[in-house]
Design goal:
alpha/beta; 9 strands; nuclease; BRCT_dom_sf; nucleic acid binding; exonuclease
Length: about 425
């Protein structure tokens, strides 16, 4: 039997409340604390939950981050080793234990007995300070723990570790009584492969992904001129919501490499794309303020300098004779346009209620369906890099995945 070596403080961020509703762990942290209450080690990683991320406004995790993170089964052995010989500690232990049991159960590992021997700091805080509020933030405030980043797995685990130390220090007899009553199950854990993957952490606040053009290299020799329709088709889909997600950037890079396009050739395609939008903007004889802003937004997304917009607008401006012949009509130079009868799919936890968006779409004559097919016009997602099954199906079928904001703008346009 492995001797007791200390405590393993654990925290998880999840896609929702109940594993029974197919919710998964999206981030996990384990912090080691010795018997004197000192933090001796910390470990954390984002987790690819293979589904949408649920309430992102709460945990703040983006799909662009977790899509490159390992899946739980790839580091489960590391977690078991972090637990081995240590008492599990968590704030609201039943919640974290519920999700940990579910994740390990998918791997045919029963962690129930081990987790039953844990300490819940929420319960312990209530025993030490009767009437104390339940939340980790309030408990930490009450005992003077500050300077932590709450609502991240590592931040909450470190805060819980400090809270645990203060509670034990403030009521050693009660804490000792609690620990003596725990079952001796800390070495009773199976072994699984370790070190298979490296942890992936959250990106720093304000982090910006490098422009996808920076990831294209002039390294693919070829003869002749390739067909570029495939690249432009992906670009059309990516720019529907006037945002290029990480998933779309990856798709553009893959297509460019498959075609053997050099970086300089891709930039030339981008210039031509912007020029075609400028031609469309001039079709009614004038360029509105909104059209110009749209051109500037597209230029920035394509990695073109702002002066390029002025240049193409000057070069594509029709002559006086051409303007006199043009009809004054509204021309949409790009972006998402929805029409009655279009099939749309919603995915993820959006800022607006799903029922509200659905009712508005139905009232405008759109068809709101639950599954994606080739006839689907767009999938509107809470996160454009969503890992939901609907978003995955859309990318496989070439159906655009757009942001909630772009979808709402398109609904507003249908009302005019």
């Amino acid at each position: 039997m492995t001797s007791l070596r200390g405590f393993a403080v654990v925290d998880t961020e999840t896609t929702g409340i109940r594993p029974g509703y197919r919710h998964r762990i999206a981030e996990i942290a384990v912090v080691h604390v010795d018997f004197s209450g000192e933090v001796t080690d910390e470990w954390s990683t984002l987790v690819n939950p293979d589904r949408d991320l649920g309430p992102q406004a709460i945990h703040g995790i983006r799909a662009a981050e977790v899509r490159r993170a390992p899946k739980f089964e790839q580091f489960a052995g590391d977690v078991l080793e972090l637990f081995r010989g240590r008492v599990p500690v968590a704030h609201n232990l039943p919640f974290d234990a519920m999700h940990l049991r579910a994740e390990f159960a998918r791997l045919d590992v029963d962690l129930s007995r081990y987790l039953s021997g844990g300490v819940c700091t929420m319960r312990l805080a209530g025993d030490v300070f009767p009437g104390m509020r339940r939340s980790l933030v309030e408990c930490c405030k009450a005992v003077g723990v500050d300077g932590v980043r709450f609502h991240t797995a590592l931040g909450d685990a470190l805060a819980t570790a400090q809270l645990f130390g203060r509670l034990v220090e403030g009521a050693p007899d009660l804490a000792s009584f609690r620990l003596r009553g725990l079952p001796d199950v800390y070495g009773d854990l199976p072994s699984m492969p370790q070190g298979l993957v490296k942890p992936v952490h959250r990106q720093a606040a304000g982090h910006a992904e490098p422009h996808f053009l920076a990831r294209l290299v002039d390294r693919v020799p070829r003869e002749g001129k390739p067909e570029v329709d495939a690249y432009l088709a992906v670009l059309d889909r990516a720019l529907l919501d006037r945002q290029i997600s990480v998933s779309e950037a990856d798709a553009l890079i893959d297509v460019a490499h498959d075609l053997g396009l050099h970086k300089a050739e891709v930039i030339q395609l981008h210039h031509g794309y912007l020029r075609s939008l400028a031609q469309a903007a001039w079709a009614d004889g004038h360029v509105s303020v909104g059209e110009r802003r749209d051109l500037e937004a597209v230029a920035a997304l394509l990695g073109l300098v702002a002066d390029e917009v002025d240049l193409v607008l000057r070069e594509e401006q029709p002559t006086r004779v051409e303007r006199s012949r043009s009809q004054v009509v509204e021309v949409n130079i790009g972006g998402l346009v929805l029409r009655p009868g279009d099939r749309i799919v919603l995915t993820g936890t959006m800022r607006r209620q799903r029922g509200e968006l659905t009712a508005e779409a139905l009232a405008l004559g759109l068809q709101v369906i639950s599954s994606v097919s080739r006839k689907t016009r767009v999938v509107a997602a809470a996160d454009p890099d969503s890992l939901s099954g609907k978003a995955k199906d859309a990318r496989a079928l070439g159906v655009p995945v757009v942001t909630e904001d772009a979808f709402v703008r398109a609904l507003d346009a249908m009302k005019r």
